[in-house]
Amino acid sequence: xxxxxxxxxxxxxxxxxxxxxxxxxxxxxxxxxxxxxxxxxxxxxxxxxxxxxxxxxxxxxxxxxxxxxxxxxxxxxxxxxxxxxxxxxxxxxxxxxxxxxxxxxxxxxxxxxxxxxxxxxxxxxxxxxxxxxxxxxxxxxxxxxxxxxxxxxxxxxxxxxxxxxxxxxxxxxxxxxxxxxxxxxxxxxxxxxxxxxxxxxxxxxxxxxxxxxxxxxxxxxxxxxxxxxxxxxxxxxxxxxxxxxxxxxxxxxxxxxxxxxxxxxxxxxxxxxxxxxxxxxxxxxxxxxxxxxxxxxxxxxxxxxxxxxxx
Length: 311
What we know:
By secondary structure, the chain is of the alpha/beta class. It has helices at 16-28, 41-52, 96-112, 126-137, 150-163, 203-224, 229-243, 288-308, and strands at residues 9-12, 33-37, 63-66, 77-80, 118-121, 144-146, 171-172, 175-176, 184-185, 191-192, 195-196, 248-257, 263-274, 277-281.
């Protein structure tokens, strides 16, 4: 079955993350049609009005309106930001049971519309919910993409850039595994302009940087209640790679089917992104220690996944 083309986007969930994504999308002019679907119709319609008032100064015109699941029928991309929010002191995995039940209903409604595009999932715990989306939708694995460690890797690159007084865009490195507490940086391949940096940092400093990345969300949630600007920018970056068929390598949530020796689990991993979704997974040359950390992260997810998702 051919994938739906075009660049129409349906955003499901207009909370802090969803509305920030819509605003970033407007600023970058990536689509012609943006439809917002949310249970809070009044707030969503208010955001639609507010966004439309900014079109005058946008890069390109857009059709932005409030809609329903029926609008997913001819959408190229459905971005899901709906679900219960993470509370202070709560891990992403604590959210799993609440949000799996919410997702079962959402995916059913979307698929009943005749949707034949790509899912981009941002709701936490994103790895589990990406897997649930794949299972509930019945779509090919390459057409379900999680935000994965797109934000964690951006945080990592920013912090390393600050450490070496270098722009984050010039830092090349990834956080992989769970978008959560078992994630870790791949120090063995992290570099600035091709120059490895792992040997230029002490073990203690590397551990401090990894902890800063891992705990950043908790600090932001404690300070202002939620994280949304960073992940919105990450979602727009993935959106751009899809709609413009970039063949870009991004650390998204993708299904492992033997890569790195693991199966049947979505994790944040560098993947080639095209107009048809995940083209392939990039297998980094991991050290034995990094392989062990990835195995631990995968097992953390599988332990939750096996009890939370019942088909």
